[in-house]
């Protein structure tokens, strides 16, 4: 697939112009209106002096305006910078200074987060108040723009989007991807997650992250499915909208699935149309997967492993959910994936190594960061080194064991956090768990576990350590267990282990980590 991203929507509008494309609260757009609005935005950018290759930024929650800005910028040949809404004003100002957008489309509720410095750095700013056809400068400018396809030729190999990595171990990096890369990712998602034109698809993960927009929503547009957009995550509203809109497919991060199953609003009958649940963004504990199967027996689950830098890399289909629990399945359609040692040599089945991948889905690089780009693409042959550690079974099934930078080296023994997190999550009293490495005078590093208990359940530190020893090798255990009310997570559902590590050090009056930690 080599078409520019703007053509995905154009093709869907030609096939079914009057079919509902987007639903967001009271606002609805059919594919023809979605297509026209995207053309208007492309022409609005051209009238604002935006040239192909220029950067345009969005600071939006999930909304039709987000989709219009995405496809419109693609048709203008601009690179769309996806600023994360939860970003604090000082960091947001730094991201704007780093990326230097000529235009910003900002949600009215987020506009106040812009510092005076950030406002001065942006030549044109359009505020979204009432949606695509509602109030505010964005809707007014869109209505005044030319309503015809822009006469701009867009190279599928040109940069289309910049999303930011989660920053769970360090600062966020701007991942630059091409039209081709994300079109390939959308097709892979549609095929592997089995989305069809008959589906009504829930978009509940933030569209500022690759999975929410550039993979999941684009896959829905590619096949001509209806998308229901959620501004924020609320389990009760999700149940309500599934029942009301007859939603059939949704992509959730494990934390959202856990919230849903434990919500007082959870009702299997009201979720009866939900037959296809995609999962990803963080490791899925087998206990959580089993709870989902029990609570929603008619909903098939597809586990998904990928990165902002790549899109989908491996898929565990519904038929393997029990036989291959705890794995992320096999390489996805069109993904060349190997597990190698630090010299790039493929390791034997059962041996832990780093996942390297190759294919047209790979990013172009990190914005203004040649050192990190070189680290990712080190070596020859176009391979991307993901930083994720895994082992591969004889049948090709992949099991993640952690990030290469997160491995705990305790006296020469390598402890993989994901293995401990999975073991802890399988304890009946544990709702959530995260493990990180901390300095240890004797062994160099020790594994520290942070645990959230289920409501009304109890467990002691000694009990949980013994549980890990019984489940894993005797030496693979946490040195310490800290009990928390919740784990800090990014908007994409990843645990912010840098925050956990800093908090642990502060509580013990240890030196704080460097900014690269």
Instruction: Based on Cα principal axes, name the global outline.
Output: globular
Category by helix and strand content? alpha/beta
**Which radius of gyration do the C-alpha atoms yield?**
23 Å
Query: Unreliable runs, pLDDT <50, ≥5 residues?
Result: 510-517
Mean pLDDT over the full residue set: 90
The major pleated sheet works out as: 9 strands, mixed
The total count of strands amounts to 25
Question: How large is the share of residues in beta strands?
Answer: 25-35%
Helix content: 25-40%
Number of helices: 15
Q: Could you give the order of strands across the largest sheet?
A: 2-1-10-9-11-12-13-14-15
Separation, N- and C-terminal Cα atoms? 39 Å
What is the structure about, briefly put?
With 517 residues, the protein is an alpha/beta fold. The chain has helices at residues 6-15, 31-47, 64-75, 89-99, 116-121, 136-144, 179-192, 211-223, 235-245, 254-262, 286-295, 370-376, 417-425, 461-471, 497-507, and strands at residues 20-24, 27-30, 55-59, 79-82, 103-107, 124-128, 159-164, 174-178, 200-203, 226-229, 249-252, 276-279, 300-307, 311-316, 330-331, 336-340, 353-358, 365-366, 384-392, 398-403, 408-410, 413-415, 430-440, 444-453, 480-483.
């Amino acid at each position: 697939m080599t078409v520019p991203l703007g053509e995905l929507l154009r093709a869907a509008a030609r096939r079914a112009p009057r079919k509902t494309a987007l639903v967001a609260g009271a606002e609805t757009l059919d594919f023809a209106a979605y297509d026209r609005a995207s053309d208007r935005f492309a022409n609005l950018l051209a009238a604002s002096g935006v040239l192909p290759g220029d950067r345009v930024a969005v600071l939006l929650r999930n909304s039709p305006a987000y989709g219009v800005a995405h496809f419109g910028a693609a048709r203008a040949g601009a690179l769309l910078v996806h600023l994360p809404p939860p970003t604090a004003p000082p960091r947001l100002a730094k991201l704007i200074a780093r990326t230097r957008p000529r235009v910003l489309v900002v949600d009215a509720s987020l506009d106040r987060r812009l510092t005076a410095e950030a406002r001065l750095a942006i030549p044109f700013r359009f505020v979204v108040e009432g949606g695509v056809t509602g109030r505010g400068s964005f809707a007014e400018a869109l209505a005044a723009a030319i309503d015809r396809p822009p006469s701009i030729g867009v190279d599928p190999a040109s940069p289309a989007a910049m999303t930011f990595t989660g920053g769970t171990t360090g600062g966020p990096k701007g991942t630059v991807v091409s039209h081709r890369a994300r079109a390939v990712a959308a097709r892979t998602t549609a095929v592997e997650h089995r989305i069809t034109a008959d589906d009504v698809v829930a978009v509940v993960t933030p569209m500022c992250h690759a999975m929410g927009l550039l993979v999941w929503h684009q896959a829905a547009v590619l096949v001509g499915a209806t998308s229901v957009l959620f501004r924020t995550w609320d389990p009760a509203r999700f149940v309500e909208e599934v029942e009301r809109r007859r939603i059939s497919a949704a992509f959730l991060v494990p934390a959202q699935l856990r919230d849903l199953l434990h919500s007082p609003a959870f009702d299997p009958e009201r979720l009866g149309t939900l037959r296809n649940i995609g999962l990803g963004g963080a490791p899925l504990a087998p206990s959580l997967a089993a709870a989902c199967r029990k609570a929603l027996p008619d909903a098939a689950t597809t586990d998904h492993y990928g990165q902002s830098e790549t899109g989908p890399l491996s898929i565990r289909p519904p038929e393997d959910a029990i036989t291959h629990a705890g794995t992320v399945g096999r390489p996805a359609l069109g993904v060349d994936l190997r597990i190698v040692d630090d010299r790039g040599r493929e390791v034997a089945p059962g041996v832990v190594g780093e996942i390297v991948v190759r294919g047209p889905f790979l990013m172009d690089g990190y914005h203004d960061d040649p050192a990190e780009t070189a680290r990712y693409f080190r070596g020859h042959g176009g391979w991307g080194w993901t930083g994720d550690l895994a082992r591969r079974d004889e049948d090709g099934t992949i099991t993640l064991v952690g990030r290469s930078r997160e491995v705990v080296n305790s006296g020469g023994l390598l402890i993989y956090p994901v293995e401990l997190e999975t073991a802890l999550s399988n304890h009946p009293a544990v709702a959530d768990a995260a493990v990180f490495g901390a300095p240890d005078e004797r062994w160099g590093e020790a594994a520290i576990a942070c645990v959230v208990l289920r409501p009304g359940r109890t467990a002691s530190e000694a009990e949980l350590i013994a549980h890990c020893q019984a489940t894993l090798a005797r030496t693979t255990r946490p040195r310490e267990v800290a009990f928390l009310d919740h784990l800090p997570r990014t908007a994409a559902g990843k645990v912010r282990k840098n925050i956990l590590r800093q908090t642990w050090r502060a509580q013990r009056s240890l030196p704080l980590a460097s900014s690269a930690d």
